[in-house]
Design a protein that fits this description.
extended, about 200 residues, mainly alpha
């Protein structure tokens, strides 16, 4: 019975008549396909842009994330359970970031500051390489150019992590007699002199 119904349906589809209504506009099916193609390209471009923006923004947090992930695995497999594992992971990642920023800000040794900044920049460089390589696989057919774009991405993202760590923790001279930020600001001092 099913074969008979499907055969009659096919016959009906083949023999159907086109009904034309006066004043009706015919829109081809390609119009919808073109819109969907354009919308898909736009959304893919926006999505890739968001991924790149997130990578550049979060580059400095890759090392604390790796530490948090490893501490979470260690806590889970040592019996911390479902509730204790996220607490240990978040605490380990937060302490890693806080200790590194404090050590970077407090030390005056250029060698120690370079080591701390490199500890944050190297995992970001590694992650940046793999992200740029994955993005290059989408649009670049040549393996040589894919590797070249991946190396550029690694340098830029590693440099971003290095720069963000050094900018966020600028060293300030410690002066026990003056409060931080108590001195006159340059814009206010210049305005006071002009009056």
């Amino acid at each position: 019975m099913h074969r008979r119904n499907s055969a009659s349906f096919r016959l009906h589809i083949q023999n159907r008549a086109v009904v034309v209504v006066e004043g009706a506009t015919v829109t081809p099916l390609q119009h919808g396909a073109t819109t969907m193609l354009a919308l898909g390209l736009l959304l893919n471009t926006v999505g890739l842009g968001v991924i790149c923006w997130l990578m550049f923004t979060l580059a400095v947090y890759i090392l604390p994330f790796i530490v948090a992930l490893n501490a979470g695995f260690w806590a889970y497999y040592s019996g911390a359970g479902v509730l204790g594992t996220p607490l240990v992971a978040v605490a380990a990642g937060g302490m890693t970031l806080a200790i590194a920023q404090i050590a970077f800000a407090m030390t005056q040794s250029l060698i120690l500051r370079t080591v701390i900044a490199a500890a944050f920049a190297l995992p970001a460089t590694f992650a940046g390489y793999h992200l740029a390589l994955a993005i290059a696989h989408f649009g670049v057919p040549s393996p040589v150019w894919q590797q070249l774009f991946a190396c550029f991405g690694a340098v830029f993202i590693g440099g971003t992590a290095w720069t963000r760590l050094t900018i966020l923790t600028e060293p300030r001279p410690l002066d026990s007699n003056a409060a931080v930020g108590s001195g006159p600001q340059p814009g206010l001092a210049a305005a006071a002199r002009q009056k």
